[in-house]
Amino acid sequence: MILRKKMLGVLMLxxxxxxxxxxxxxxxxxxxxxxxxxxxxxxTGEIPGVNPTTxxxxxxxxxxxxxxxxxxxxxxxxxxxxxMAAAEPEEKDGGKTLIFKIxxxxxxxxxxxxxxxxxxxxxxxxxxxxxxxxxxxxxxxxVKNATQILKGDMDPDQLGVKALxxxxxxxELENPVPIFKDLLTTGTFFPQNQAYIESQGDRYALSSxxxxxxxxxxxxxxxxxxxxxxxxxxxxxxxxxxxxANKIHxxxxxxxxxxxNLYTTDKLDRIELDGEFVSKYKDDxxxxxxxxxxxxxxxxxQGKDGxxxxxxxxxIRRALxxxxxxxxxxxxxxxxxxxxxxxxxxxxxxFDPKTKEDFREQNGDLLSYNPTEAxxxxxxxxxxxxxxxxxxxxxxxxxxxxxxxxxxxxxxLQKNLPGLTVNIKTVTQKASFVADVSQDYEMLLGxxxxxxxxxxxxxxxFLTDSPGNHTGFSNAEYDKxxxxxxxxxxxxxxxxxxxxxxxxxxxxxxxxxLVPLYQGGRAYLQKAALQDYIAYPIGxxxxxxxxxxxx
Length: 551
Fold this sequence. Notes:
Distance between the termini: 51 Å
Number of strands: 21
């Protein structure tokens, strides 16, 4: 009897040990599953900043789009959908006055309500000349008095935006604008909390510790210099039930070989491909290819503060613009769906409101590859500036693709333009953005992805004295056409379209302000488990609905 009891006790103890072991294994599995559910994606450069007022580049706006939200957010199909706005606005004065109601459940990540005053404060800050906001001109000729304020002729308090109460925002427009709802999805029009910003002083938005969010995610583990950071679900977000990812980990990867190593070892769930890697992986089940609305070009510094450069000579600029074999570039170096672009406005996205003809087809090729003509313009330009040759620095970022591109362009330019020496200046992506904004370059590899599906988003950048210009280009007729498309012509779609066509011709055909290169494509590998990675042809990527199935 005693022996039987001892045996029973031993069996019970053994059972408990086995049960504990099984539970321990299950706990490990649950932990591993939880950790593996983190979504891992790449970025090609560090985040320069996350202040919606001062942001001036695509990487910053991509981050801003995950942690902030405006009155509207683009839906999965790229259409503006209600976000901070509870309903479509009440219209008055023929659509020139809009009354928005802010969601009652809209909160900042620190628990304070998002109010109409947050929008009023942010918008007035954007147009204040003291802010030097690169995209303050987004409001020019659209929001009432924005043009005069940006010029310094009126006080920012006179901007046509006013909080009528905590949840009621009144917006006054110069004219009803067909693209206004699209503009409201962009970072320039996002709200900011004045009390929090003032409490942070100069530290605001310099790290994730000095930042609050009203969007789907909070930015964490970022100090302004990090090559990794996290987007963590914002549990104060009004639509958190539709935010599937608890954590998205971002890693800066500048080399395609490194990206592939990380992808094949399951440390990245999506990577970008280019060149030889596209043909190598084009039959892989994870392979995808699409086109984008990104216009890529070389910027040429004509001078600033009254000091002109050799690139102020239009024939020199024409020569440079016509001396690069763009077809070879997209075929050999990119191979990712990119297409030669001989204008500034990309193809397949924007269409004539009457004839539905594509903008790019309508305006044709404005600056094409023609080495014979390039050499003639080069010789004329050198004669006009009294020189026998030039040495020009070409600034670009430090990704493997950008290095290959600049070396290709260096070879093309020096081969086709006798007497030209091109010195490549490789800097970090962040430093490249700084060089652009400060106009501290001679030639610079850059581009623009657009904020909304209208030619204006590309042409608005080159208005005289626009904080987004940075080339020294200035043309009164160009300004009149572009500003007219934003204001006085906004109610006449066909005349507005014609003005935009003419403006692009002035920018490139007449003045060769840029060296247009290509319309960006996108070839990538993406794990089957990763769902709803939303990347639009136009506009910042949207991670709100992203998820990862670990089954």
